[in-house]
Amino acid sequence: MKKDCYKALLFDFDGTLLDTNELIIQSFLHVLGGRFPGKYDRESVLPFLGPTLYESMNSVDPTLTKELMEEYRAWNSQMHDQMAVPFDGVVETLHALKEQGYKLAIVSTKRKVMINRGLKLMGCEALFDTIVGLDDVQNPKPDPEPIELALEKVGVEKQDALMIGDNFHDIVGGQRAGVDTAAVAWSMKGEAFLATYKPTYVLRHISDLLAIAKGNAI
Q1: Residue 68: exposed, middle, or buried by beta-carbon count in 10 A (0-12, 13-18, 19+)?
Q2: What is the pLDDT along the chain (218 residues), one digit of tens a residue?
Q3: How far apart, in whole angstroms, are the C-alpha atoms of residue 123 and residue 126?
Q4: CA 104: distance to chain centroid?
Q5: Ordered alpha helix ranges (H), the chain
Q6: Taking a C-beta distance cutoff of 8 angstroms, is the pair 129, 162 a contact?
Q7: Quick one: which of 50, 16, 18, 24 has its CA closest to 185?
Q8: 14 with 108: CB under 8 angstroms?
Q9: For 123-139, b where at least 16 C-beta lie within 10 A, e where not — what string?
Q10: Annotated active-site positions, please?
Q11: CB neighbours (10 Å) of residue 64?
């Protein structure tokens, strides 16, 4: 376990800070239910949480990828503010971490326009030193590129950073970038699933970061 304090905390967004799980699931069910009646149910769309929207829709039907993405984004955008809410303790913990001087970054497979919309909904748009979204990179997580870009933007070395997320993309991406990782126990994927990727830490609650960031293992 790391003994020194971290200087930068890199967060995934959906499913980690903002609870958009139901929004995402319903967005897929709405679009795919209309296109392929009876083929997709709740269980079958869960693997689409985490990968980029392109990857998910391309796996459904490569000939319809663009149309499916457009339909998804239209419905998702319409329902976003009604269905998305921050996870318990997130807003308070982010404010506390910022006040304590940590560099905060978001590293997401979501488009930056939607990340900013979610941050505004949370009232946290001024807390982050940088945001790396899907439109900032060629290769999304689990490729290390977005994490390395975030480190470059905040001016912190990899040994001083922690990547926090709810999916294997975050854990594997962090490991490939050479940073410590924290999996969140409230992940839709389940704690046991994420444990197989051997994250440095597992967070039971977002407030666990207040101790971990100081180098105090929990």
Answers
A1: buried
A2: 445 799 999 999 999 999 999 999 999 999 999 999 999 999 999 999 888 999 999 999 999 999 999 999 999 999 999 999 999 999 999 999 999 999 999 999 999 999 999 999 999 999 999 999 999 999 999 999 999 999 999 999 999 999 999 999 999 999 999 999 999 999 988 899 999 999 999 999 999 999 999 988 76
A3: 8
A4: 14
A5: 21-35, 42-45, 53-60, 65-83, 90-99, 112-122, 145-154, 168-177, 191-195, 209-212
A6: no
A7: 16
A8: yes
A9: ebeebbbbbbbbebbee
A10: 12
A11: 14
Q: Which amino acid does the sequence have at 143?
A: D
All residues at 6 or more sequence positions from 185 whose CB lies less than 8 Å from its CB, including other chains:
191, 202, 203, 204, 205
Identity of the residue numbered 213: A
Query: What is the Cα–Cα distance from 19 to 23, expressed in whole angstroms?
Result: 8
Q: Can you tell me the distance from the alpha carbon of 101 to that of 117, in angstroms, rounded to the nearest whole number?
A: 24
Measured from the Cβ of residue 122, the count of other Cβ atoms closer than 10 Å reads 17
Cα–Cα distance, 137 to 58 (Å, whole number): 19
The CA distance from 122 to 17, in Å, is 9
**Which two tokens mark 148?**
């390395």
As a whole number of angstroms, the distance between CA 76 and CA 166 comes to: 20
